[in-house]
Protein: AraC-like DNA-binding protein
Organism: Variovorax guangxiensis
Amino acid sequence: MRPSTPTSVRTYGMHERADHLDFDIRFQGARNELTLPHRHAYFQIQVGIEGSSQQSIGGEVRPFGPRHLSFVLPYRVHVIPHPPEALYCIVNFDQRFLWPELDVDALDLEDVPLARHPDLAPFLFQEYVDFAFDEADFARIRGWLDELHALNASRSFGAKTAMRGILQQIVGLACMRQENALMRLSLQHDGKTSQRDALQRVVRYVRDNLDKPLSLTDAAAAAFLSPNYLANLLRKETDRTFTDLVTERRIERAKELLASTSLLVREIAHQCGFADEAYFNRRFRQVVGSTPRNFRREHVVGRLG
């Protein structure tokens, strides 16, 4: 079962959810739990210790229980509603903390070749893989978490270097244990599965809501994206703006209705989401090169001929 579409999805910064701007670790109870779908501008790893739940991430629902890890990419909409008795750990870190040499905007991380940064794989493919560990592996992870917590509290000389090393070991262990699945996803989808899925969700949302007011913010929420990410993705993948996409779909729907129904032009304008007939006529002529009535007349004549 997919999660319901959020009407408003908040984006959090490190300054809102952490005590440090580069790295932070906490166990449950340290801050107010987020129970609604949200996103943040930093990387996150959630670790399930006790108590079973489910995680919603990028429009998919996957199990999250004891000995599970969740790898959350910046700006990916997610939520893990922990039950009252749950014990879990949350690790937040800025991109520059673990990958100072990775000079890529967070919105373009899905374009980074995995051959260059294979340690991004768990974050890119969390929607498709369950990162569950056996007792031996998880004992190692628990030990690493305790070390991270102590180092983060002390912030002594050399602590950051040690913290990076431990964090790399956690991510590396996840990559090794799920090597086959991650390699298969990498080869099949070339790192862009989430982008294609997101665009399909946007197009589906627009198609299903053409008769209603449509905004970039609402469409992004329906696709579990941030508005900035969606605008960037549309420009990169289609060379169009969101307004261009909506107008194109509305005109295509109008052409179908003009050609196949006897609805009045003003009725078609309303069904396609145009505020009034005059505005519809102007936009239709700009895109198609003729008025709606002329298009209908030419279509009928061509069909009869």
Residues 135-154 form the longest helix (20 residues). The longest strand covers residues 43-50. The mean pLDDT is 89. The beta strands are 10-12, 23-27, 38-40, 43-50, 53-57, 60-64, 68-72, 78-79, 87-93, 131-132.
